[in-house]
């Protein structure tokens, strides 16, 4: 066994600990999917993967581009003349043409409202590597970042595992659509200080995963001012910047610090970006730290030796990203397809009265199943989630795994599948909800008349611990309600 608490622990404390976060329910759902993956032709009863924020909707456009541009690959007759130059390249500054293309593209995604300096673009292994690098540069073990909830679960790994940073929640609520307020931020900041924790940064994701919403200009300006006033870093994960498909438009922190907060201390502002979501290229492992702080750029660049992007990938992307006409077409078409998918999914849920938080970005919806909980607890949420994963066979992600303080919210990814699979998933959800509504109605009706419900015994113990309104009780074949009907 690798871990252990004995005095002769073989590995480092970090390696032996569970800081990777693999034990979270977020990953449990993945395991269920791995054991019985849905396939339209070969396994129609399998688990549908809706826990993976992956963009498969526009890959055909990239495939098409690469076929029309064989010179972008060093492994084709048209591109082989570059083979030696590229295969021999290993400078951690990255190919100049790659950084230039990346900076130009980042500006294009932000509708040309802001320009990026190629000399501030630092390569990392995905946005995952970018966060790890930033945490290494910005904070010491035990320092904290404040993070609005709900937030991307793997931040617990990316920011904390190696660097020992703590993430402290800034509690956001459904009452204002989980909008971050200055009051909540100040309350989290003061709370940390009272506990003697040094706050080194505020970490936001804009557009948000899991909410699928964009942050407005005023909130971003408030954050930039707060960072300047309190000398804390503002780290903005903008990985979904190019996946905004409806109004309001995306506003980048880059734009806000230029236009709205003239006195902003730019040394505190850092952006993490990646091509994993907007292009659906997580396998390329292309992440970026874009920092306005020269020292962070210098240190992150040295760090990038640990997570360099292959020069072959840089070469290919340099060509593709600098094709401005293709990029414009790609971004417009991708947004159109994301909108169509989102609208269809949300409308399908509405048919059975299930609402989602109004979203305009991302590859998922934040689904409100609060009305289906046995009670307003995280246990009840996980109970419902287990039914959805194991009986309804949809791997959605429970709000608790995103540190959401209000039970009953679920993130459902819908851009990682074809239309037909999405319809199967929708059908399953609708059938499940209707079943629940039907039972709930029957229960209400039964509750109005005097009756004695006798519950059978299972394994010597009474099964009455299963609450009657529990979806577990609804669907489990051993359920007293199933026996009663
Ligand atoms: C908000 C956010 N940041 C970072 C990542 C990690 O992305 P990458 O594949 O570039 O490491 C994800 C992936 O789901 C994400 O949603």
CATH topology of the largest domain: Aspartate Aminotransferase, domain 2
Fourth-tier CATH superfamily name of the largest domain: Type I PLP-dependent aspartate aminotransferase-like (Major domain)
Estimate the global geometry from the Cα principal axes: globular
What is the tally of helical segments?
17
Q: In which order are the strands of the major sheet placed?
A: 2-8-7-6-5-3-4
Keywords: Ethylene biosynthesis, Lyase, Pyridoxal phosphate, S-adenosyl-L-methionine
Organism: Zea mays
Catalytic activity: S-adenosyl-L-methionine = 1-aminocyclopropane-1-carboxylate + S-methyl-5'-thioadenosine + H(+)
Enzyme class: lyase
Overview of this protein structure:
The structure is a single chain. Helix content is 40%, strand content 13%. By secondary structure, the protein is an alpha/beta fold. The chain has 2 domains: 13-58 and 329-442 and 466-476, Aspartate Aminotransferase, domain 1 (Alpha-Beta Complex), CATH 3.90.1150; 71-323, 3-Layer(aba) Sandwich (Aspartate Aminotransferase, domain 2). The strands form 4 sheets. Strands 2-8-7-6-5-3-4 form a 7-stranded mixed sheet. It has a 4-stranded antiparallel sheet with strand order 9-10-13-12. The protein has a two-stranded parallel ribbon with strand order 1-11. The longest helix is centred in the last third of the chain and has 29 residues, at 419-447. The chain is globular, with a radius of gyration of 24 Å. Its EC number is 4.4.1.14. One of its GO terms (molecular function) is transaminase activity.
